[in-house]
Amino acid sequence: MRAPKLLCVASAVDLDFRYGCTPAWWQLWKGLHDEGVDLVVAPYRGRPVETPWWRSASNPTYREAETYAKVRDAAARLKGDRYLRRAEASPEESVADRLTREAIWRLVTPRWLRHLEELVERERPDAIVVFTVPMAHFRGIPTALRERFGIPVVFYDGDVPMSFPEFGGMDTGFNYYHGADPGEYDAVISNSEGGLPRLLELGARRAEAVFWGADPDFFSPQPVEKETDVFFYGYGDKFRREWTGMLVGDPSRTLPDVDFALGGRDFQGDIGAARLIGDVPFTVFPRAISAARINLCITRRSHASVYASSSCRPFELAAAGAAIVANPYDGLERWFEPGKELIVVHDADEAVAAYRALLDDPAQAEELGRRARERVLDEHTYRHRARRLLEIVDVRTEARVG
């Protein structure tokens, strides 16, 4: 029996780019592999990466993408910053944004269409899934592929609602939906349940939610000594600066005997007395989680304010058996039970009280983490998510592992 096959195009596959979704895509693709899917993955930025779980295809516009990234980096440095920053609410599209998109349509989009046509002819996949490539950059491609091959083409946006025009995405990337037509795709899959009506407003014919999760084999409790008291890792503090101040800045001054550590970069707001430890490679992230007595889940305002807009972090922390303290997050109870599997705090005073209680009672912290991991194993692994994705794409498999 022929294994079902998906042709995937991903924003990036190389973990060195530090794109927030890429580690999650790795875990989801592994979950699809374990469910019996034959995967072919092509990166939109960077070089292909071969693994035991998928076969790779080339990037036909590698040089163009890297040249553009260098130009953006140089422009940011001229402004004395690391990124070309956008406003956090309703960012306007600039003239440069429009000119860039026009250039992409002329130079990049046609080459990707030819590349995907060649891949479809060679691989004969059952469906194509586009993972967080800026939707406007592929304008016309889904229609052309469907008309020529009769193959379903699905877009998977893992950044909802931050990718919406009213938020404009991260400072490191593009605004996905300016100049795009979501109606070209057979379905738009989102990490957000509350974002589905907005996707329909933007023109999607069908919108479905597939939440983030965790691979419990990779994110598992590690047998390491505790090295810090309160730990947070994230890609900067955009959209969560206020909560970083409440959960890290103020408490680290109130509790001078407690060791606070922040991993990642681009923290622009109040971090108080917390130590900055820089990037934490994905390969050692479970160890960093296990080495902390308390792990913070500080969710960006964009996600926390739109119901059930999943981010990776709560599932990864829970799978690793962490004692989690989180800021308020609309829909968090959709996945975990506050008070039993994690603790939600509403201000700096509640954060201080939660830290004291957990640090003074390690057994309570351990039990909190144990229950959180059990919930992940029951409901939130990437094999669960892979099955949901395959239902939407209407691909049926026989699981090959487990």
Structure, explained:
The chain is globular. The strands form two sheets. A seven-stranded parallel beta sheet has the order 3-2-1-4-5-6-7, with helices on both faces. A six-stranded parallel beta sheet has the order 10-9-8-11-12-13, sandwiched between helices. The two termini are 19 Å apart. It has 402 residues and is of the alpha/beta class. The chain folds into two domains: 5-213 and 382-393, Rossmann fold (3-Layer(aba) Sandwich); 228-379, Glycogen Phosphorylase B (Rossmann fold, 3-Layer(aba) Sandwich). It contains 13 helices and 13 strands. Helices cover 37% and strands 15% of the residues. It has helices at residues 22-34, 62-78, 95-107, 109-123, 141-149, 196-201, 241-254, 285-290, 301-304, 313-319, 348-360, 362-379, 382-393; strands spanning 5-12, 38-45, 55-56, 127-131, 153-157, 187-190, 207-209, 228-233, 260-263, 275-278, 292-297, 324-326, 343-344.
Q: Termini, distance in Å?
A: 19 Å
Radius of gyration: 21 Å
CATH topology of the largest domain, what is it called?
Answer: Rossmann fold
Main sheet overview: 7 strands, parallel
Total helical elements:
13
